[in-house]
Amino acid sequence: MDEPGSCLARMRETAPLVHNITNFVAMAVMANVLIAAGASPAMVHAREEAAEFATLAHALTVNIGTADPDWGTAMEEAAAVMNGAGRPWVFDPVGVGATRFRQALSERLIALRPTVIRGNASEIRALAGLEGAARGVDAGDSVEAAAEAARLLACRTGGIVAVSGPVDYVTDGKEAYRVANGHPLMPRVTALGCALNGVIAAFCVGQPALAATTAALAFYGLAGETAARSARGRAASSRPSSMPWQR
Amino acid sequence: MDEPGSCLARMRETAPLVHNITNFVAMAVMANVLIAAGASPAMVHAREEAAEFATLAHALTVNIGTADPDWGTAMEEAAAVMNGAGRPWVFDPVGVGATRFRQALSERLIALRPTVIRGNASEIRALAGLEGAARGVDAGDSVEAAAEAARLLACRTGGIVAVSGPVDYVTDGKEAYRVANGHPLMPRVTALGCALNGVIAAFCVGQPALAATTAALAFYGLAGETAARSARGRAASSRPSSMPWQR
Amino acid sequence: MDEPGSCLARMRETAPLVHNITNFVAMAVMANVLIAAGASPAMVHAREEAAEFATLAHALTVNIGTADPDWGTAMEEAAAVMNGAGRPWVFDPVGVGATRFRQALSERLIALRPTVIRGNASEIRALAGLEGAARGVDAGDSVEAAAEAARLLACRTGGIVAVSGPVDYVTDGKEAYRVANGHPLMPRVTALGCALNGVIAAFCVGQPALAATTAALAFYGLAGETAARSARGRAASSRPSSMPWQR
């Protein structure tokens, strides 16, 4: 596999336009993260224009954190555009276990075979059908406990599945990598997990998805480590945060 | 009444999942505030899932700052779930005097008897029907001028009413407390008032609402004082900000 | 023309209430920018209340970055209220070249003759019909290349047109000013361009629009220069960002 640094350099050469249909909490953070990484973000979700906009984009991310039925349709239509053009898209099944609406929408999106699915351990388990009781809260599940779910899911979609956590797990169903970068403060800042979707999508433009996803996770974790060195705030609690968009 | 510190400690033991149907301006700030305080935030407002999600939450906040009719329905349904489960919910009548839509929605929400209503002086007066001319701008009204409105409103709903300002006023219609914490920079940062709703909701989980609300206001004001000590920006004007979501 | 400083002082005396129908990415940043500048922001976009709220506001901004058809209607109705009351409103045609939906909505808004149109070079060119191929990405177009488009557009609407860039260009179709303030880091922070719309609107309250817009651009650029002096982050790339809401 390439050096993560090469993947980053190639991403920055492209400076890809990343189309995001993401939740309201994450939009501004994600835009700033993508600009800082060297990509070009756009947040476009209206049904009236999402598919048309997708034809301009190098990559797409869809995140169901604050979706509604119209957004769901926009996600499906934009994803179909990316599939037709052979361009990468990343799916984040935020809180998939929490409501029937999220489950149904996630199933429709998985059927479109995302290039990359990224979630926390409970989401990936719920998505793989391993755990019917998961309800959007990931307190109990470790990344290790989701590795088998990730492999199953990757085999089913033919894409990459990444499980975020203290040590990330990335697999295409055959090979697997672990990424141990990052900092405990990262899950204490809202929307950092959501913003990562955009970085993964940007790295995947014109690069093999398994290597690109792994490189994106390493890059992002290193950025968090760097930022943590100058962070002056204190985490209020040592407890890991539990809702998906707190990752 | 318990020490505010005991209320905080118990809230952190629970690390409650707080479901928020709040305005777009406040979502990210509120998520970060709740994580920092030790709770777990979720922003879920679609009609298709708000009530179902509420069954998972320890507490709920509803804020009409950027509501529309669908959100209004989601707020009512989620509040009914909390009432049925005996769980606390906080209502913030942002700019209630500004439009007929806000007034009508606020009346429907008050009829559901929120555990806590929190607003600025003009909102609380408008809500109590004391001032027909209030239009979402609180420039003229002092917290003192809203104390009687707060008492009336608390008697009507059987809940707590908190009036935010330089000295906050909290009452259950019989007893009342004043909280003098906080810093003049706080109303100069958008959405800090909205984010406070989440902290109040978190404190109210499993704790008596009058004491919990008072403790939440003290905790929040102290956090603002601490933050202000290291703030390097300058307020552009000494004028207090006037719109609700500038609090 | 007045000193920019006089325009600023008069704006702060008024502390105008600025009603914004803007995109989700920009809302919180814009609110904080307006408070810091000395104005009072409100984000209100629901069709059920936007026009009624507009009757309370001193000025309005509309930004199509994340609009949908209902928001478009709210924008038109609120703009009509401002026109009827002789109050200023600012239109930001974010990504107008990207989709047919944006083009159609922008044409309806231009027909209402905004007090000020502010955009980047590609948007202003697309809006003036000079460049059918512009698709929301401004990489190639310089501000100079949009000066003629700005003049044409100003003559058509009878209003002010401002082109943002390293050196801003402002014209009423007859006179023109260039503003060379600002800092290269500003386009690297999301939503700073969108937030500027609010500052322009605030400056235009009770002041001649050409002078007020020019003063607002100078004030904003100077604020950016001041902020950049204490900025500790590094831009990830020297490439100028390309999407409208990265400005």
Automatic annotation (TrEMBL), chains A, B, C:
Pathway in which the depicted protein is active: Cofactor biosynthesis; thiamine diphosphate biosynthesis; 4-methyl-5-(2-phosphoethyl)-thiazole from 5-(2-hydroxyethyl)-4-methylthiazole: step 1/1
GO molecular function: ATP binding; hydroxyethylthiazole kinase activity; magnesium ion binding
Residues at which substrate binds: M43, A191
Pfam families: HK
GO BP field: thiamine biosynthetic process; thiamine diphosphate biosynthetic process
Transferase found in the keyword field: yes
Keywords on record: ATP-binding, Kinase, Magnesium, Metal-binding, Nucleotide-binding, Thiamine biosynthesis, Transferase
UniProt cofactor(s): Mg(2+)
Coiled coil residues, start to end: none
Catalytic activity: 5-(2-hydroxyethyl)-4-methylthiazole + ATP = 4-methyl-5-(2-phosphooxyethyl)-thiazole + ADP + H(+)
EC number(s) per entry: 2.7.1.50
Keyword Kinase attached: yes
Binding site for ATP: R118, S164
Positions of transmembrane segments: none
Function: Catalyzes the phosphorylation of the hydroxyl group of 4-methyl-5-beta-hydroxyethylthiazole (THZ).
HAMAP family the record matches: Thz_kinase
Family listed: Belongs to the Thz kinase family.
Entry protein name: Hydroxyethylthiazole kinase
